[in-house]
Write a structure and sequence with these properties.
The chain is mainly α. It has seven helices and no strands.
Length: 119
């Protein structure tokens, strides 16, 4: 979309960062990650909400299927804020500070995956 706004084709080989500087738009993936982080904090601070109950619910068996474990919704949040992220979310200033770290961590993770694919 940004390329079409500036009338730039992929054939022109203009870097994505340069296009972003010209259009002054934010990265959609980064924005989504920040919104997820904010929702997690909002949900953790809520009282007796169904979304909070569903997030902390685990099946009675307590095991996942054989093979690569499926990721849970809060696995990403746990990697940045720790296992007790719901306690950290109670402090709004600390949670806001960690939001930047979470978004940067996700962006770096995406770059690493792209490099692995190219190799």
């Amino acid at each position: 979309m940004e390329r079409s706004m500036l009338n730039i084709r992929k054939y022109d080989r203009v870097k994505k960062a340069l296009i972003r500087n010209k259009t002054k738009t934010t990265d959609v993936i980064n924005k989504i990650k920040r919104l997820k982080w904010r929702w997690a904090g909002h949900m953790a601070r809520g009282h007796e909400k169904w979304s909070k109950k569903v997030t902390w619910w685990y099946p009675r068996e307590g095991k996942r299927k054989r093979g690569r474990p499926q990721k849970r919704w809060d696995d990403d949040v746990r990697q940045v804020a720790g296992v007790t992220w719901n306690r950290v979310a109670q402090e709004r200033k600390e949670w806001k500070r960690l939001e930047e770290a979470y978004a940067d961590w996700q962006a770096d993770l995406g770059k690493i995956k792209k490099q692995q694919i190219l190799v």
